[in-house]
Sequence to fold (312 residues):
Amino acid sequence: MLSKRTLFLALTCVFLATISSAFGQRYPSRPVTIVAPFSAGGPTYTLARILAQRMTVSLGQSVIIENVTGAAGSIGVGRVVRASADGYTLSIGNLGSRVLNGAFYSLQYDLLKDLEPIAMVASNPQLIVGRRGIPAKTLQDLIIWIKAHPGEVLVGTAGVGSVSHISGVHLQNIIAKPLVMVPFRGAGPALQALVAGQLDLLFDQSSNSLPQVRGQTVTAYAVTAKTRLAAAPNIPTVDEAGLSGFYVSVWHGIWVPKGTPKDVITKLNAAIADALADSNVRERLAELGQEIRCIPESGNREVVADRQGGEY
Fold:
């Protein structure tokens, strides 16, 4: 029989060895999860999936996308805030989930204090798209049609407080006619409803709508930018279409819980920079109208993140 002292010492050694082994593991030693706070198939999910595929190469571990939807992204962000600050749970978010939610919801976390920014990823303007069958060929025709049906036009949004919601309200204020806002759990299902003819209008990120525009399942009336999209040069700008100054750009970034070790943040930043420097990734993003805002230069693989949580 072992004495109590001997047993205690043996268990202590095992415990210390376990701790030593855990701290000695190189990061990452297991799969990394990126939480997308909107539904699968939407622009945030698509961007995360493209990044994850290339980050897997740099990190040497699988990068998994987890969709946690609801409350215009705030539920997914809260999931990351409460996660362990070990670099294995990342959050991808945009202007809506990282700025607008703070004005629309009583959040259980602090957008500035509870998350650590890793990198800016890309940005894209919105497209003003409508269902097929609307008797309007131009944006001006569309506005006339909307005014002729006050309180009847259904506008899809990615949730209350989302960028698409704000754009819809902005148009409503400009034309001084009521619109019916229909919230979804992301832009993906909202676009599906538009294609099915269940909605009339959607302010959607170009990366989400362009494939449907090309497939002629929806009609694009304008791009919410000063210049036309290189990926879709036939779509007029809002200035050209008669809605001057209606500019909306949606950026995406990556965050981790506050307190994540600096060396882990550095490694994640480098993996994202490598992904954005990859020619295949850049080509895929360009096809979707996504613009890489911080393209790493040769010999410099760091992508700067704005720690104030605003525009990068």
Summary: The chain has eleven helices and nine strands. The first strand starts at residue 32 and ends at 36. The domain at 125-249 is CATH 3.40.190.10 (D-Maltodextrin-Binding Protein; domain 2).
